[in-house]
Amino acid sequence: MDSIALAGGLFLLALLTAATVLSRRAAWTALAMLFGVCSISKTFGASTLEGDRFTWPLNLISDNIYIFTGVLLTVLILQALTLGRSPIKSQLTVPAIFLVLLQFYYGVRLILAGSAFKGPLILITFMLMALLFLFALPNMIRNSHDVRRLIVAQCGGGAFFLIMTGYQALFNRSLMTQNSRFSGIAINPNFAAYMLATVIPPAIWLLLDRDSRGPRKVALQAFTALCALLLMWTGSRGACLSAMVACAFVLRHRLGAMVFYGGGVLVFAMLIAQLLPEGSTSTERFRTLQDTRSAVWTALWAEFMKSPLWGSGGSTFGFSENSYLAAGAQLGIIGFGLIVGFLVSSLYEFQRMISRRGRSPELDSVADLVMGGIAGMLAMGMFEAHLMGAFVSEIYALFGYLTLLGFVRRRFDALDAAPASPQASNVPPSRPGSPAAAPFGRRYAAARR
Predict the structure, then answer these.
(1) Position 24 in a domain
(2) What is the pTM of this model?
(3) How many CA atoms lie within 13 A of 41 on its CB side?
(4) Chain segment 86-135, per-residue pLDDT in tens
């Protein structure tokens, strides 16, 4: 039965491969599937999907996550390369370079530590990830609709996680929680919390986007409310802080619109809370000042000081609790320098985007999402070593934001190069969506010519 299931899964994956190479729309579907597969990959080696024979598709993905992830990455790279354009020079950013170097060094250190399987696997996965999001995927992002498709794909992992958690709950509701904290199909509540924290900001951005109308807005309100409630139910203070940091950037110039649509989110939250009364018990963690991190941080710093040049990492490389200290403790001064370089260069890109604000409301909103998404990841790095993960949804979401960062910077550069209109100083700011304001339409095309 297992061999038949595996053969069937690979056959369906082959069909998706053919469709992806031949169709742009199928490629975006495959990208959403990649984010979805990463959400279930958290159960790798410790799957909680049990109790019914119909859970075999999920267990199939979990048991063969390396195959499915590698095939999807390779297929998406090949599809993007068929578009015949190479924007490598204009899309690569300094934060992306530091992150790729950090992950490359991590893979090399695993190989040097004697990890014959995990080292090459991690190294190949990181390289495919970099090729897709930094070199190949920019070929697919040519206008505002492609930007929205990427953001929708980022939410796809969260939707997949919620659907599969609901499916599991039909057979055994008790498996949704661990110690009264929501975990869903994740290994533990913290993994579920950080995945949900990466989904909420793009969901709010789509909710406020002018192209989202009617039933789509209602669905996004319900989706945002459900994710926020489940995030609270996990009891993870670090994940909630990360989500709040990201949302602060997304909403900093659109609080009025969020107040308008927030009423619907609140109504859905109240309705969903009636269906999940267990979630109220986990809020006690937010009312306590219990220190759960400082002891681990102190141990990581002491480990770094023992071997600051080379680090003390072995073949297992047990990263935990803090990306920055873990990089130093396990990878030495080189790893610590690379991750600090990623942090500093990201802050520099934030300053550049803020200084260039006001030229296009639509482009400004994308820049706010990019800054919020990366800032949330940086804050998340204080509480989890997600920057060193290869099969977690957070790292794929981060690479998605780096792709959008290159897109936003390229559009700002094109607007800078465009000849200014003599009457520009006397023209009031245009409404979002007008031809003069949209960076995705005629103004950008004229700049490129």
Answers:
(1) yes
(2) 0.84
(3) 22
(4) 544 456 889 999 999 998 898 888 888 877 777 788 888 888 888 888 88
Give pLDDT tens digits for 235-262: 888 889 999 999 999 998 888 878 888 8
- Residues 39, 10: Cα–Cα separation, whole Å: 19
Contact 177, 56 (CB under 8 A): no
Residue range of the domain that includes 50: 1-84+141-167
Residue 345: inside a domain, yes or no?
Answer: no
Q: What is the count of structural domains for the chain?
A: 1
Rounded to whole angstroms, the Cα distance separating 242 from 323 reads 14
Structure token pair of residue 46: 């410790």
Q: Residue 301 is encoded by which pair of tokens?
A: 């710093």
200 domain-assigned? no
Residues 9-30 pLDDT 10s: 555 555 555 555 556 677 777 7
Q: Extract the tokens encoding 20.
A: 């992806």
In a domain, 21, yes or no: yes
In this predicted structure, the answer to whether residue 432 has a pLDDT above a threshold of 50 is: no
Q: Which amino acid is at 253?
A: H
